[in-house]
Specification:
alpha+beta, 271 residues, N-terminal domain of MutM-like DNA repair proteins, elongated, Helicase, Ruva Protein, domain 3, 24% helix, 6 helices
Length: 271
């Protein structure tokens, strides 16, 4: 699943080709995604420009004077800039063509992604209204995690993967951040001290920033918006390395299933 660094990398890759470029035509070959692509999308956007492209959590927000087009990549979705006229593949469901001769192509083999429309007259979209703070934003700190975790018995790993607590920390980066912070992923969130949460908040920010700088993580379906693979996987400390030596203490890493997710950690370094 594309996580926050992959979505941010996609945003940076496609942004120069999207903002202030006029939409010429929209082709929807498959509208049955996680939610149906709005039938009126083409009539709303053809002939207009997107003034801004931003991100909220894992949602890409294409903004103009009429409203916002929301795109989520789901489990296997991707966005590419291709030449106008390039033939679509089997899972290329939507093309947004621009008058400069290029297209934004949405591909999603599993069809768990979505393309939705939010009119400017409406309040915040229901999918965005309950999202927690951005982990790269100024308002994200250990104090927020500590206060939100009081009396919570859920594991710390599941806690930081809850988008109502903090957005964009998926399975890969939850594993990596907990390793950097030296925290066992199984510990109940409510039993972690404020000092350790301060360290964890810094670790979450660090691992996400490093992944964005490296271009995201290449795992199965993901490549960046420029079509190139991400390279952060070469720097993973624990994720996908169960049974291998810990990079810090050389003890074999332990791999378990936690909340139905692969979880890898060092029983010596993470307490």
């Amino acid at each position: 699943m594309p996580e926050l660094p992959e979505v941010e990398t996609t945003l940076q890759g496609i942004q120069p080709f999207i903002t202030n470029h006029r939409v010429k035509k929209i082709f929807v070959r498959q509208s049955s995604l996680r939610w149906a692509v709005p039938a009126e999308l083409a009539s709303l956007l053809e002939g207009l420009k997107f003034e801004r492209l931003t991100r909220r959590g894992k949602y890409l927000l294409f903004k103009n004077d009429l409203g916002i087009m929301l795109i989520h990549l789901g489990m296997s979705g991707s966005l590419r800039i291709v030449r106008d006229g390039d033939l679509p593949g089997k899972h290329d469901h939507v093309d947004i063509c621009f008058d400069e001769g290029h297209m934004l192509r949405f591909k999603d083999p599993r069809r768990f992604g979505c393309i939705l429309w939010q009119d400017k007259s409406q309040d915040t979209h229901p999918l965005l209204v309950n999202l927690g703070p951005e982990p790269l934003g100024d308002d994200f700190e250990g104090k927020h995690l500590f206060l939100a975790s009081r009396q919570r018995s859920i594991s710390i790993k599941s806690f930081i993967m809850n988008s109502k607590i903090v957005v964009g920390v998926g399975n890969i980066y939850a594993n990596e951040a907990l390793f950097l912070a030296g925290i066992n992923p199984k510990i109940p969130a409510g039993k972690i001290s404020r000092r350790r949460y301060d360290r964890l908040a810094c670790s979450i920010r660090r691992v996400l920033e490093e992944a964005i700088h490296a271009g995201g993580t290449t795992l199965r379906d993901f490549t960046g918006g420029d079509g190139n693979p991400g390279y952060f996987r070469q720097s993973l400390n624990v994720y996908g390395r169960g049974g291998e030596e810990c990079n810090s203490c050389r003890k074999p890493l332990c791999e378990i299933r936690l909340a139905q997710r692969s979880t890898v950690y060092c029983t010596r370094c993470q307490r």
